[in-house]
Amino acid sequence: MKIGRSLLYPALAGVLAACSASAGQEPDSPAAAPAGAIVTPTSALAASAAVEQVVQPPAEGTAVDPPAPPAAATAPEAPVQPSTSHVALKYLIGDIDPASDPMFARIPEKYLGGSRVWGHRDAVDAFVRMAENAAANGYKLKIVSAFRSFSDQKKIWEDKWSGKTLVGGKKLNVSVPDPKARALKILEFSSMPGTSRHHWGTDFDINALDNNYFNNTREGKRVYDWLVQHATTYGFCQVYTKKGEESGRTTGYEEEKWHWSYRPVADWYLKQYPVDVGYERLTGFEGAATAKDINVIANYVQGIDPECKQ
Ligand SMILES: [Zn+2]
After folding, report:
1. How confident is the model at residue 77, as a pLDDT?
2. Are 26 and 209 in contact (CB under 8 A)?
3. pLDDT tens per residue across span 159-201
4. Of 262, 270, 265, which Cα lies nearest the Cα of 232?
């Protein structure tokens, strides 16, 4: 039961983002060993310089009026309106290096459970606040996957496509020779390169890439119940809920109880995605020719829980 998501972001401000990460495992396979991480705060000013047009994020929704500037000092320029702001294409498809992009921040090591260490800085901040509150109440939250670049996702995808990574215990190149059917099989839990919300740095996989952990272990059940009750407060939403009448989600990936998205940034990206990313952009990986036939943008990128769109 998820509630009240629609009230969180009245002024969905602009934050531009995306990130990248180290190599590692993804959906279907547990993450690799934790990587050493250092918290590297990034200044808003530095981040601003990195984007074409900058709209300051509504620092976590609880904006406080800044102190008045000295009289007649340099008058600030009028803020850029979100309606005219623009997320560069590279952020939508993960064509960036988060280590050198001030829009990204490292996830503190204490909250890392995998090798992907980067996230959109606002999403990381919000996650840390959520995890601290969870810890204070006896719940451990760790990020097992975060930002993934286009090339990260290409490797995950092609390893499944080629049979190098088994899917459901099978080599798909052998068991599913038809390209469209093979793509659909991979799409149960993994995104095509260029279409993953993990490209944005706004989405985190929490604790385990396995519904069984959340359904059938005491710890997993407790954590999931806590997330359902509290994640919204911090801006996070479970985008890949169980498909069907109850959720109203009819297309896209199978249920992923581990995947939570930071809406104050991700909503904006999702809105812009179909405007700027067409099928001509979804190229450069094996099986790319199936993308249009599958209608992967409408059915998968936009195939999220309706409550996460309100
Ligand atoms: Zn995920």
Report:
1. 52
2. yes
3. 999 999 999 999 999 999 999 999 999 999 999 999 999 999 9
4. 262
Give the closest residue to 211 by CA, choosing from 267, 269, 259, 159: 259
- Which ranges of the chain have pLDDT less than 70? 1-84
Give this prediction's pTM.
Answer: 0.76
Rounded distance from Cα 266 to ligand 1 centre (Å): 13
Q: From ligand 1's centre to the CA of 204, what distance in Å?
A: 6
Domain 12-57+76-308, second-level architecture: 2-Layer Sandwich (3.30)
Ligand 1 centre to CA of 5 (Å) is 20
Q: What residue ranges do the domains of the chain occupy?
A: 12-57+76-308
Distance 272 CA to ligand 1 centre (A): 20
Using the mean position of ligand 1's atoms as its centre, give its distance from the Cα of residue 197 in Å: 8
Give the CA-trace dihedral at 304, 62, 54, 118, to 10 degrees: -60
Q: How far apart are the first and last CA of the chain?
A: 15
157 C-alpha to center of ligand 1: Å? 14
